[in-house]
Amino acid sequence: MARKEFQVTPYEVQGNIDYDKLVKEFGVSKLTDNLLKRLKKHTGDLHFMLKRKVFFAHRDLKWLLDEFENGNKFFLYTGCGPSGPIHLGHLQTWKFVKWLQDKFDVELWFQFTDDEKFLFKDKSYDEIQEWTKENMLDVIALGFDPKKTHFLIDTKHSGLMYPEAVKISKKITFSTVKSSFGFTNENNIGSIFYTSMQAVPAILPSVLEGKNIPCLIPLGIDQDPHFRVARDVYPKLNFYKPSILHGRFLPPLVGEGEGKASTSKGNNNIFTTDSQEEVENKIKKYAYSGGQNTIEEHREKGGRTDVDVSFQYLRMLFEPDDKKLAEIKGKYESGEMLTGELKDILIEKINTFLKEHQEKREKAKDKIDEFIYKP
Ligand code: TRP
After folding, report:
1. Are 326 and 183 found together in one domain?
2. CA within 20 to 30 Å of 77's CA: 17, 165, 291, 303, which one?
């Protein structure tokens, strides 16, 4: 943190993130209007997260679309590190993935990195296993098609994954991992190997089919370093480099729309298992407001939607309707709408979503087995 004011690695997201700087630093490309137009030719419409640049950058998306247009279908790959309850930031990525699966009618490989979370968090092996089951319920509840969706659990599918992981690991040095993830000599040796496990699902379908299949990985941009490292390795093993779509972070509740929602910060996030009252309390008490200090001042100057967390939650996740969002923006910025009223809109949206999600999550308990990949 000394050299710059923010930091983004898979294991540390800190400070006020400058996404333009990050794009340069990581060497990814911004999504252009042309590329979005090309995507729209296939999807019919554009997801609001694309229109609003929530998903804003990519690697090799042009190549992926070239392949697709030549009849070479891709598969989707994303994942979850099971170390605690699922928060709204996770849902942002997964809802987008669901849309992609529906629009392109493609397979999704979903990795649960129980090994990773055991290695990196101060939690027992058994506890991580519990979270793995819990987190699966949230993924299933989002309505993924079990015929086209395959769960991989690192420690359970190790027989399948390890032969590929070990080949990948042979081509990554300790010094690369150290500089990419900020590791020191104090890191445990499992954490040093881990990137090679996260690299595997991007090629596993190709291994299983015995032919190269293009892969698209939607992710929060903090996960990019794993693939930046792995993408150098895939061609050396005669696989395609996967294409990537990068998402911005849904901000935590506290703070001026900064940083990243995370599993470990209780009141700073909404979890999918929160009660209606908890949601209401958290938003009312903690969601950073871009409003003014007094009603008079607010009426006069209006609120700031760019830093208002409730507005950002609507923009990034809960209000797909562009017209409605524009109306809220107009009213809030002009001072006609107060922070309390804005928060009420969001609370209603979240609670309506969660009520249904929690019911589906209950029903998902009988469905886990259908989703777990069986060779
Ligand atoms: N490492 C990710 C996490 O901590 C989980 C993950 C595994 C992942 N494979 C992925 C995320 C692919 C995005 C894309 O949450």
Report:
1. no
2. 17
Q: Within 10 Å of residue 300's Cβ, how many Cβ atoms?
A: 10
What mean pLDDT value characterizes the chain? Answer: 95
C-beta of residue 28 within 8 angstroms of C-beta of residue 58: yes
Q: Does 165 map to a domain?
A: yes
Domain with residue 206: its CATH number is 3.40.50.620
Query: For residue 161, how far is its CA from the centre of ligand 1 (angstroms)?
Result: 15
Cα 220 to averaged position of ligand 1 atoms, centre (Å): 9
Classify residue 44: in a domain, yes or no. yes
Sheet with 55-59, side-by-side order of all strands: 29-30, 55-59, 243-247, 215-220, 75-80, 108-112, 149-153
- What does the pLDDT read at residue 86? 97
Pair (178, 226) in one structural domain: yes
Residue nearest to atom 14 of ligand 1 (CA): 78
**Atom 6 of ligand 1: nearest residue by CA position:** 79
* pLDDT exceeds 80 at position 315: yes
Please report the DSSP string for 81-136 in residue order: --SS--BHHHHHHHHHHHHHHHHHT--EEEEE-HHHHHHHSS--HHHHHHHHHHHH
What pLDDT, on the 0 to 100 scale, is given for residue 1?
42
What does DSSP assign to residue 271? B
Q: What is the whole-number distance in angstroms between the Cα of residue 10 and the centre of ligand 1? A: 9
- Whether pTM > 0.85 for this model: the answer is yes
Segments forming the whole domain that contains residue 124? 7-253
Determine the pLDDT at residue 265. 65
* Nearest atom within ligand 1 for CA of residue 117: 4
